[in-house]
Amino acid sequence: MTRTVHVPLGARAYDVRIGADLIARAGAEIAPLLHRPRAAIITDETVAGLHLGTLQTALRAEGIASKALILPPGEATKSWPHLTRSVEWLLDQRVERRDIVIALGGGVIGDLVGFGAAILRRGVRFVQMPTTLLAQVDSSVGGKTGINARQGKNLIGAFHQPSLVLADTSVLDTLSERDFRAGYGEVVKYGLLGDAEFFDWLEANAHRLRDDIEARDHAVAHSVAMKAEIVSRDETEQGERALLNLGHTFGHALEAATGYSQRLLHGEGVSIGCALAFELSARMGLCPQETPSRVGAHLAQMQMPAGLRDVPGELPDDETLIALMGQDKKVVDDRLRFVLARGIGQAFVSDAVKTADLHAVLSQSR
Ligand SMILES: NC(=O)c1ccc[n+]([C@@H]2O[C@H](COP(=O)([O-])OP(=O)(O)OC[C@H]3O[C@@H](n4cnc5c(N)ncnc54)[C@H](O)[C@@H]3O)[C@@H](O)[C@H]2O)c1
Ligand SMILES: O=C(O)C(=O)C[C@@H](O)[C@H](O)[C@H](O)COP(=O)(O)O
Ligand SMILES: [Zn+2]
Description:
CATH architecture of the largest domain: Up-down Bundle
Radius of gyration: 20 Å
Largest sheet: 7 strands, mixed
CATH topology of the largest domain: Dehydroquinate synthase-like, alpha domain
Number of domains: 2
Number of strands: 11
Bound molecules: nicotinamide-adenine-dinucleotide, the ligand O=C(O)C(=O)C[C@@H](O)[C@H](O)[C@H](O)COP(=O)(O)O, zinc ion
Distance between the termini: 45 Å
Order of helices and strands: EEHEHEHEHEHEEEHHHHHHHEEH
CATH superfamily of the largest domain: Dehydroquinate synthase-like - alpha domain
Shape: globular
Mean pLDDT: 98
CATH class of the largest domain: Mainly Alpha
Helix content: 40-55%
């Protein structure tokens, strides 16, 4: 069964199609968007080895010719050199303003290619074909695109909505345990930020997501529907959309501190960040201590990292981590703003965090 979530953004509205074997049906899904029968695909080496052939065959079956650029896998690819390489390759392919670029891969490829599409000839359309759990529940939807800087995560980018998202949930079978688990960090985030019932469901069912396609499709579709609702009300993060950043002030600082390396994946940073945001909320008297304990118990049950102690190797001191948080895009007038919570599913944005509480939460988790 294929589920469809519509993202109602007026002239930039699009569908997110979710279900098994969508890559094999991609030609028919994409053909109506094309003005001429050709498409440029950008992907990474791992995904190319596993799924590019299926995509190109599906396009060919509909008479669509395609060329592919294959980039190295990993967070380091979300950087200037690979942006330059991608955009220059697209220009070499003579991709025109009415053509379509396909991003086939995880959040790294989606963010990079989406940004490339945003700036190519001042904006060409693109299709997200997310192949990780993280990309299917989060990064392929909502139009945040960009690359990392030495100074911080996603600091160079643009809002550029895709024209279509095809989330083939069967491709998650080939994902490593670690990447699947990291993606779960963004799934659990939705329950924690705004849907206590979904968190209850995850407590009971999350262990089934890896092997049970029905449970997986439900979790992906529910997450995407939540994101679509928030994004449709606040496309460019003037307010409510910041809730989707739960856990990210901590997580992004940790990713920068570990050099965007395999030491800490984005979803792992988000998992740690969510745990710390709830600890901070309890310390500030916003919610009872039982709430972070419940969050921590679920993360432990799912074998998710939940503290600084779970990051392998040395981390910088608290001052350095807090300085890294200073580059967060939620900062206003030099003041950090955190997503905190009054309970599970009751997140809000606050600029009232005392540095002493921040230090206490960070050092307690080392
Ligand atoms: N734009 C947004 O709204 C948004 C939201 C969340 C995260 N992000 C960004 O997403 C990125 C993380 O994305 P990610 O976790 O998907 O990482 P990723 O793109 O690096 O993918 C993780 C790994 O899985 C491999 N892979 C991908 N699909 C596979 C498959 N089906 N089978 C086997 N291996 C596969 C990749 O090659 C890679 O090695 C971060 O840069 C983060 O900042 C963006
Ligand atoms: O879509 C959003 O909005 C999010 O915040 C989703 C996050 O999971 C994602 O990691 C996003 O890229 C972070 O945004 P940023 O503005 O803090 O870079
Ligand atoms: Zn994220």
